[in-house]
Amino acid sequence: MGPVSERTARRYRDAYGIPHLRAADHEALAFAQGRVTALDRAWQIEVERHRSQGTSAAFLGPDALAWDSFARRARLDDTARRCHAALDPATAGWVGSYVDGVNAGLAAGAARAPEFAATGLAAGHWRPWTPLAIWLTHHVLFAGFGTKLWRTHVARRLGPWATPLFAADGHLTSGSNGWLLAADRTATGAALIAGDPHRIIEAPGIYQQIRLACPEYDVLGFAVPGVPGIAHFGHAGEVAWAITNAMADYQDGYAERLRRRDGLVEAYGPDGWRAAHRHVETIEVAGADPVEVEVIETERGPLISGGPDDDPAVTVALRHPPRVTADLGFAVLPALLRARTVGDVDAAFDGWVEPVNVVLAADTAGGLLHRVAGRVPQRHPDNGLRVVPACQARHAWQGWHPMPSVPVDQVAVMANERGVSAGLGVEFAPPYRADQIRELLAAGTGWRPEQMAAIHTDTYLAAAEPLLALLAETPGLGDEAVALRERLLRWDRRMDAGSVDAAAFADLRAAVVRRLAAHPALAALDGPSGYPEVFGPWLALLPRVGYALPALLHADLPGLDRDALLRAAVEEVAAAGDTRRWGERHRLAPWRALPDPATPDGPELAGDHDCVLATASVPGVTDRCLRGPAARYVWDLGRREHSRWVVPFGADGTGPHRDDQLPHWLRGELIEVVCDWDRLTEEHGD
């Protein structure tokens, strides 16, 4: 094999079809990354392009209309254009090379993907800012903006007294586990970084295993299909990094008062009535009539709910950093590829914008990093709790918070709990996952990469204890209910797929959730909120009750007889006598842009949303797993070839590598990271 410079780019694959790319320079490599992504993931990235533009209903039908309407009203594509226009020339050129590569490969990729023919969709044409729009689409709702709508809804329906009921550290929409072991704690004498990002499980997956090599760098990790570089999880040989959601609060909702006057729309702000931007867009909908959307933007931001003719109580503008600053932090991506030390990674992440993340990094010289990266505005504390009045100047942004960091003492854990980012957010994940990871890691030294799988797949559910403690004191149970209680109190608290007791606990939890949600003290929340359909997951009562269950059971709810409620729930579960195992009901249910009703039930899973094996369902609604480990990784800083990784399905959107990693993912196994070019197969043509 000759030197890299003999050809512009060369493409190799390992046994799982994972692409390894070599190119003569940085921009040629970006072109190659874009092209291979179009070949492997054409349907996936075209769906995301259309979602970013608000044009997906044109081929996916009415079910996609709610998202398309939000994307138009939030002006996602326009924000991406603004951020692209502000890029430095070098970064813009690099992104442009990636886009050129996507456009070069889309036709061939679309020919391989049957979804295009099934929907009548033709491969489109990417614009220079499309990768930025896709990034924004994936992350625009990461910051808990929907939770502010929920708290505002609670205050309207029940009164301000009720908002703290759901304000305890609780469930999150997207999170992750991650941990770092310093050299003194490993068998190799070099640091290890491991973890697993938790997101909606999609088919194909949100993370693309890839390797990018040119004379400047050689980096492997997980890319986001449609976005150049390796942002979240990467290993460059001398240095490696990983992230989790910091649970920071960096988006605000402003209650707007609007009026129509002389053909214009005006918004009432701190300086009185001011003209707002307004235009109308039309959304094409497959199988239905087109829908017109009025797009309005005030000085606070785009209107994402309500309008001049609607109830002012639900007329809300969204303010978030990329729209304000015209910056998505894309210059960080090439800087990360070129990083060689922890200091380089740290400096690169100084430019990060959103989502706001906790970062762990280590290098071969012994450098360690544990910090927060992103942009969080400074403003009135009420902004973090609910939708605030647009007319009050005290709710304006007043600069940016500095990003905190902490030293690493042998072990660092990040699992969305309060910690290094505590001063930047309002609600965080409960400490169960973080505490369990720390306890497991403290149990030994001399850790090796292959031992990390035992932590990835730990099923202990400490979150069960608050409910079981109350159950132990519940009086007046019948014989069957007493027998069930004794079983659950003896249960080892592990949500193993083969456990009947784990399933019984899930049944008890669901029964309690349903009864609490139906109680008159909370039932008023179970109705239309007035906010758009896209925010439904944040505004549904049953999930909110399920994830705040310990706090609600100890709350002073008017008219709540806690013992009677628990007694009725355990009697119900005991009478049902369900003997199915947890895994029979806790099955993988991945999101697909084009669902097939004939698809059989997904495979059985262990775990639960507060286990380290965070395979999340929705208590009281479904036992199916909608969100979980979208990838797993172990980065070895001693020998990169000892690193491991896996994704839920496979490297490709179609063909033999569509789901060949699924058996490994289900068993908690990780596959080899191949670093030796001679062990790879060079691929020619499309």
UniProtKB/TrEMBL annotation:
Database matches in InterPro entries: Ntn_hydrolases_N, Pen/GL7ACA/AHL_acylase, Penicillin_amidase_A-knob, Penicillin_amidase_dom1, Penicillin_amidase_N_B-knob, S45
Gene3D superfamilies: 1.10.1400.10, 2.30.120.10, Glutamine Phosphoribosylpyrophosphate, subunit 1, domain 1, Penicillin Amidohydrolase, domain 1
The keyword Hydrolase is annotated on this UniProt entry: yes
Alphabetical keyword list: Hydrolase, Zymogen
Family: Belongs to the peptidase S45 family.
Name the UniProt record assigns to this protein: Penicillin amidase
Organism the protein comes from: Micromonospora qiuiae
